[in-house]
Protein 1
Amino acid sequence: MIFNSVTFLVFFTFVASLYWALGRKPRYWFLFLASLVFYGFWKWEYLSVILLSAVTDFVVARKLDDLPDEKGKERKRWLAVSLVINLGLLMYFKYLLFFTENLNGLFEMLGTATRLPYWDILLPFGISFYTFETISYTIDVYRRHLKAEREFIHYGLFVAFFPKLVAGPIQRAAELIDQLKERPAFDIGFLTQGINRILQGLFLKVVLADNLAPVVDEAFAMDPGLLSGIDVITLAFLFGFQIYFDFAAYSHIALGAALVLGIRIPENFNYPYISTSLREFWKRWHISLSSWIRDYLYLPLTGVKVTQSTGKGGIGQSLDHQPTARRRNFALFATWSIMGFWHGANWTFVLWGLYHATFIFIERKLQPLRNAIPWAFKPVITWPLTLGVSMLSWIPFRAENLTDTFELYGRLLNPNTLIGMGLRENTYLVAAMVMASFAVAWGFAHFILPRLQSSVIWYPARVIQYTVMVALILVFLRPINQFIYFQF
Amino acid sequence: MGIVLLGTVFSGERSFEEAALGSLTVVHEGAGPNGENSHCQRIKEEDHAAAIAFAEGNKSNILILGNSQTHSINQKKGGETVYPELIQQQLDGVGVLTHSMPNANFQEFLISHAWWTQHTAIDHVAVPAFMDDLREDGLRGDFLKMPVTSGFQLLSEQPLEQSLNKQLNLLTNPPSEAGSESDALTPQDVSEEALNAWLSDHTTVWRNRSNARGDLFLSLYGLRNKAFGITASTQRKMIPARYDRNLEALRLLCERAAAAGQKVLLYIPPIRTDVAPPYDPGEYAQFKEDIASISTAFDHVEFANLEDIVPGPLWGYKASTDGDGEPELDFMHFQFAGHEILANALTPLLAP
């Protein structure tokens, strides 16, 4: 089920109403069943994949918990069982077609007649997200950071909890399971704050992201050879904002829906485009993924022993216990390649990851220079640079293939093709307006809104704001575009 | 309160195109000699079926392609009609089929022409070259309803035609609204359709949502025009990439017509010439040269420049596009007398 649909609004109203009327135990089962129905509205057949992943890690985690540290080899074997099953599912559903295509391409290049068969496989929504959740749970139990759950319903609900099931935020078991076990007393604050977040999310999705989508699609459908460097920058900014509105919208709705049910999910976005470094960007963008990657991939690859997993974002940050520079650089590039590949089975995503690794590497090397910039000038210099670098990273993320990606970057790097207007005038106008609106919105939220809260116009202003928001959501609410991150 | 606002501000039934044209210009479709439905604009499949049935009874058929100039009359009075119907009245025994789409580009003409050629016997094709519309790109399913619903594809290895085939295929098989990539309907598809149908049946607000979306975008355009001082007379610059794709589509259309043994009349349509046109003079001259040079590349293509045949007083005004209430010159849609002049100019060129 997708959030930007009438079906979801009806479903959620029913679920939330009944949820608060139920007692503690029926509540688990009801939420679990509601989550399965939510997922089944897309493809009920694929519920078996979620259940297989959940049952595997439930059983494995109990074994890992029960086995003493002395039986280290056996514990490792059980951990391997979980990793093989979870990563095997991911490999089969998400990457088999990619490897088949690449191997067949290689066979063709080598002139052999061998060809692997293509299987018609549909990617289950959310598999990348819930697989990471189940893996992190098992690793946390393996590391003795967490006790294994003894009742399947608690663990099953953690995996299937519908607000975050399809596109995150990626949850840690420690953050969610205890909340799901409790029976929060009904508080009107849950309802008002939750509905507020849902409305914000729907507004970002159906009013902003979905109306930017045709502009972006039309521009990216053009022959890259006919565009200028300015056009490429415009496309990068437009898609950068589209994906931000789209994904932040999903996170807002997920957080809001959970909050209506009395469950708090950590924030996943925090104005990423105001960052003054890429390290800061990754503490503000898809925070749950960057923190997962840091705790379960980057830090182990640097050789640092992880003593506690946290949901705070950021990759490539300075560590108290410094590994060698070579080890850190290896971990940085390996982590980002995998992070790119996690997003999609295409070389363009690997390139996107390597792009970020390269710029974070450059950022580390230029740190002394950055430190030398006078405090007052620092944001003026570092913010536009970071914004430009992060926006241009979206080119491989959105382009159809590597050829288009290199062609688009080529237009930007070639002085002969840098200037020119290959897009409709409105496209540049929309890009400029969105950028300006984002800056104004951030300034308003941080400097003006806090002062308004004690003023007499606060409540009338809020009424007008919500009236307009609801009217616009109703006008544009159509499930015409799935959330971009569904495909990951 | 949001629902109340929606119901108050956006009410009433009207089409987006009518709102875009303004109140001074009226959409009107021509008809066959006995009132047959021979002019297809956008929506209904039965229009195409009726037009094909009409064409089958004629000794020869002309296909007129066009944009909103073809299906609109400025300051229309009772009984007035558009130039395709006037041509039809002058040509005995010849069927005049018309397919007009607002802001139609040559890529859409190419698909429309190929589809009609496959479905009925066309002898002559009239193709107007509107400079405005060469700023457009791609295909719109709403105006190519039959090719889209029938899963039509061009048989071609040409890169542009392959790209148009891809677009057609996407329009024919859009990704499921619920995000599924398979052809089968998901439970979400079913429930969403049922809920939307129920809401549309029971609430005016829900039924009028598409009008509201149209009105909002028109308001945004008005705001943009006001902010940048854009009027109907403001010069529009050519967009090189789109221009090239459209000229390539025109070349391919001429090739396909030649292969089907059809004659083509390629013409520069009337534009208001008593005031400066809304184009860069250099670009407009180049455009006319490019169109003429395509016609000379093909034996079966005749070229005509009809840009100045409709005198200034026979054009009109359109509603303000920047919200200040002052009517603006309309460079695209003329009055009935203009349709008569254009019909008289085209008839001898299209007569068998």
Protein 2
Amino acid sequence: MSRPRTELTAYAGLAASAVALALVLGAPWHAMALAGSLLLALVPAGAAVMCWVDSGENAAQAGLTLALSLATFAIASAIMVWAQAWHPQVLLALAGAGFVSCAARLQRDVYR
Amino acid sequence: MMPAEQSLLPAPTVSGIRSWSLARWIQPQLAVSLLGLGSWVYGVSQLRPTGIGIYGLLASSPWLDAGLLLLLAGFLFELRGEARTWVLGLQLVGLIVAIHGAVPIIFGAAPEYAWVYKHVGIASAFEQYGRVTDPTNIYQEWPALFAAVASIASLAHLNPLTFAAWAPLAFELADALLLVALFRLLVGERRIVWLAVVLYEGLISWVGQDYLSPQAFGFLLWLAIALIVLRWLRRPLPQEDLGSRRMRAVAVVLVAAIYFAIVAAHQLTPYMALAGIGALTLLGRVRPRWLVVALAAIAGGYLALHYNLIAQQFGGLLSGGNPLANASGARGTPNASAAAVWSARVVDALAGGMWLMTLAVIARRLRRRRLGSIAVPAALAFSPFVILLAQSYGGEAIYRVYLFSAPWCALLIAGALYELRPRIRGALVAGATVVALFAGLQGLYGPALVNAFTPSEVSASVWLYGHTPRGSVIVLPVDDFPALEAADYNDYNVEVPPADPQIGPSWMDEGNLQEMESWMASLGHRTVYVVVSRSMDDWANYYGAPKGYAQLVSELPSSLHGSVVYHNDDATIYRLSVKGVS
């Protein structure tokens, strides 16, 4: 497993999770909040997985991070519709999960 | 063209320091790209919807054409030279932005295509009510994409209308990223990878499957599934270390999770994906074999839960076993303008050319008994046709087949081009990419006046839902208006007269006021709201249908006594009292 690629994914996941949270919760303009929610939909969930999985190629790593995030975000949103429990703020937990997983990935490397 | 091996050599150095010749400093390929970008920006900034002719954008702005041509030329120069990944990546992004950014910029960021507004309405309903509000609406029962859009809009406190116009650009950029990754898995020569992606962008630009829609979302996720399958579940494995048992198990779980998102988003895409995985499994290229069975179970389970809706609204799963009929595509009109006929012929030729060239590549390999190396893309290029055995999908199936087939056709064609002698390769690569790009763009930009809307038209629609009583009947003389985008869309009854053969049965002449009044009376409301707009006028001119539309527009305020309740530059809404309704 290539350490730099998964490490880079972990750093990207950490940064995206933090920025997405900050923008969604604290942005003064809707356009910035939109950037934050798009970031939330496109990075943290996928990074949480891909920081542990090396695809062997940079474009594949980025593409799979994006696709996995989008799929997770969509399934979670659909579950809220099916369950008639519409609380989109709950999706911010994806940023939390991304943060924890990416931090654990980097931590593991530090103490290994 | 320079042989690949030669140009992959490191740049010459002098005493360990790179020599910076004038040509290297100026970077002609970057200069050409920047020139192209400048020309494109100027062209787009000068174009207004009123300045676009009936043949579309390409015929309306030489600056736009020159910009696109120079962006492509810059890319090809770099491909012929050093083929640096970062330069090619930037140039590809520039080209995709130029292709898919033009219409939203020219039309003031109003989403293109009338049916996108229907999708916005579903997302708005989820955003406002947080549940399925219309169980008879097939879109609401496959909610994954719409729910995701609703979540994004909710978190940003914005209406999805504000960002929907940029969906084609976003989807194409994401698709391109995954395609680069996929093609790198399948071919060693990076020039073929980049050429294939650019060919793909030209080939599919006309097919219009990348707007804010479940199929665009499903296609993106299908590419991710294909990437995971070809990376970790392919046999024989290109790199044995990547195929550990644990990683294969993780890959199967990831494929299943992504596939479920597709299944919950779109009715057709799961079966297109299944056809691809099934074809690879039959060829013995995928392990475990039961993966295709597991995916079929996911799709079948979801379908079973919703089968009643499919049976009620579409009469079941099969629309007829005649693949030729299922492949017939959109219905034309006998009075279509020369511009509509031209654009249709150009894209027909492009699609036919793509498949014929791909078949020629496969036949050549078969003759040389070297099919093995291209078996995977060949199987994926033609497996989507299986869907035509079962479904026409309302005339849409052939476009989905084209979309799912195009990436692999592009890869096979790009590979064949690189097998040619260097002396003729350069000219043929340039010719193929220019033809693919501009033919595809004629299909995309040709009907721009018809497919795109102005902010004024969107404002008229927003006014309509904000000011007319719930339960009102809204009559659209032409089915080309940004309607149904409101969360309460199903509280309104939007009706289109049966006068356009492209939409359905067309027995009516809208210019025959007696017929029109009698049809409106059959709707059972004493008051109806009739909308006429710029895009409707352009549709009628472009397609020569519906019959009598121009006469209806002129008679609305006089003979039909319509009173204007809303008017702006591009749309007028009339309120009509219908005779014969008590």
Protein 3
Amino acid sequence: MNEESREITSEEERLALLNILEDVEEERRKAKEERDKTLAIIKNLTDGLLFFDKEERLSLINPQAERLLNVKEKEVVGKTMEELATFEPLKPFIKFLQENRKSLYKKEFQIGEDKFLEVSSVIVVSRGEKIGTLIILHDISREKIIERMKTEFVSISAHQLRTPLSAIKWILKMILDGDLGPLLKTQKEYLEKAYTSNERMINLINDLLNVSRIEEGRFLYRLEPADLRKIIEDILNTYKKEIQKKKLEVSFRKPRKFPSILLDKEKIGIAVQNLIENAIRYTPEKGKIILSLKKKNKEIEFFVKDTGIGIPKEQQARIFSKFFRAKNAVKMEPNGSGLGLFVTKKIIEAHGGKIWFESEEGKGTTFYFTLPLKLLK
Amino acid sequence: MEKRIVLVEDEEIIADLLERKLSEEGYKVFVAKNGEEGLAKIKEIKPDLILLDIVMPKMGGFEVMEELKRDEKLKEIPIIVISNSGQPVELNKAKELGAKDWLIKTEFDPKEVLEKVKKQIGN
């Protein structure tokens, strides 16, 4: 029995072995086919790809990446990140990768006069083990150029609009001041309205200019030590009339001692003003507004809390977007550029701070921002 | 003797309004429509004060200031810059070049300009 079964086994083994060999061959062929297919896909991707293995050696670069980085495959493949860091044409790019080692997602990198890349990196894991890092290069030159043209357009047209608006402002002001003779009461009333409308237009243009300056990346200008308490108080004071008119109860909680912080006074002023103005604007009569400023560990926190109309939940995600205004806000106050919070966010972030809010429709909104104290030198 | 001001401004309405306002206050105002004309007037009149626009045809305000800086006699004349853009870059450059004061057209009105003028050279 034993012998017989052994014989059958050995015959079966032989067949099985042959089968396996055949399967392996088939698998190898399939694997090669797969590999060729994958390579073809990688080579024909519209995005540039670079693959660094776990020893940080560049093991793959596709033609798009060669073109975007202006290098040849044979010059770079097989070299380590360290070696590439000294390879002249790639120096700035490798430096950029090394600086962003921790996380890299859709980060802009300018590689030439009019050449911009959006770079992302992905850690490639296979069977629970890191096998390398994939760098993805997306060419955004066209978008950047269009964006720049758009920004320039806004900037130029806004500048052009300022000149006639100044002229209107000055003329109205002189007439209102009685420089050109006495006015009738109704004439004065209407001219005052014209003056206010013109001021609104000037503000709108200023907002547009601020946006284009942000987009041109030349917004933060001069950092100097400043007392944020005073900035907030001064701005609050300019709203006395509106506050009285709407019978709002406004309080400002501030510490008696507060450090000077390095900031761009004018820009932080714009941010604070936008938040205070929104609170006043979108809080119905007899509402309450609380401003608070305090020092927390390594940062300062400021908030403006109101009992206003709130931001509808489904629109909260877009509240910091350019030109966006919540539906209930438009209903309450048709005039507004939808730029205030966008600009505010950029200002706070340019200072290394954070901005966020809590809001419930019909109950009120609180906008918070923090600024890091490490700015203090 | 009445104080003399050279006003260099290409925007006709602004120039007109300022001339009027300043004349009413007893200043003698000389208007120039661009930097080149302005520079010539300044050299000729040697005024007590210069009101200077920045962006102008032919010669801009900054160039006028640079020219004046090179002249021993003229560089002492106080300058108030009238800026259209109000951009910090522009204002800072004006300060660097020695402007005594500045104002932004959309943020000021003729009355405030007058106050600034008075502050520099009195009535």
